[in-house]
């Protein structure tokens, strides 16, 4: 039995690959592990059945035999630990790749999500311009630091790793703004990630779900 | 040579244990690993020497022989993987404990930090009351879900783990507000964490740094 992940029955990002199942799909594609997908509605996500798998009522989840996991960082790390291709072999290099996983999710993603939410929800508020300036600055500080560290390397620390996988998906959340264009080093980095065959397969798979759901929409 | 961590020379939290070195100190105390501390000023944190260790110019860092790490999640996980006491032995239980580490840092901490920052920086803004309502709601939704999952258990999944360690430090950030008092299950959980001898030793160690720095302040 292949592992089963959950994903939005009807993704609010309209198939642009920003929903977090994309990260798990990409990791599974990188290591060549087939998987099943169970689609869940927004209503079902908050019901006891799904909450038993995910205490915060979100997607994705990951079920493999007796194991049920939530949190994309943990799922991607679990996949990386049980297959070759997403973590380097050396102990120290492995620890550093994991540091980039946490950096993506705890240092880069929070200000990027905050900016995205403000652009989505606060556009008609009196304070929008003032807040946007602050939020943009917070994101740009982190992008500047990341850009300097990456330099002219292809990936953050040697070969492509689970750290790069998560960082690319986090930076892709900025696609709707034009910020990333001011950091050519990072734009190229994201493009390198998106060009990987495993990324393309994962992207097409999640897009197919959205396209099929749209056809059946009233 | 014991490992060396970095910490604020003069912590902005005035020794209340909210700076992120607290998490690493606590983990090291739990596993009985002695450590050295190198204090860094705000200026030094943004200089090339420190940026080589931490690309985002923050504390803590962790140096052990040839290995240099940043990101508290990665450092705590590294400590947990190389010593007994912070991760369960079973493969599945271990993966679930790591899921709680990511949940603490990627699901709970971002809205809690956002609320804390608004309370610190936006108090005199015209929008403060309206924003505070939104931010409080986001935090309360997560606390409610976490409270339900914890139930009457002592810890999130069996014995105390690195997941509980990070979750308790994240929830402690709410100490300045009175929100946690509305979730007695979580207040007791945090109190259980703070009562652990390893927590007490780590707390005293970081408080001593702050007290000594204050004595020498002009």
From TrEMBL, chains A, B:
Instruction: Give the source's domain of life in one word.
Output: Bacteria
Q: Which organism is it from?
A: Bradyrhizobium cytisi
Q: Which UniProt keywords apply?
A: Transferase
Give every GST N-terminal domain span.
8-87
Keyword Cell division in annotation: no
The name this protein carries in UniProt is Glutathione S-transferase family protein
PANTHER family under this entry? GLUTATHIONE S-TRANSFERASE GSTA, GLUTATHIONE S-TRANSFERASE-RELATED
The answer on whether this UniProt entry bears the keyword tRNA processing reads no
One Gene Ontology term of the molecular function aspect: transferase activity
Question: InterPro entries this protein is in?
Answer: Glutathione-S-Trfase_C_sf, Glutathione_S-Trfase, Glutathione_S-Trfase_N, Thioredoxin-like_sf
Please give the Pfam families that the UniProt record associates with this protein: GST_N
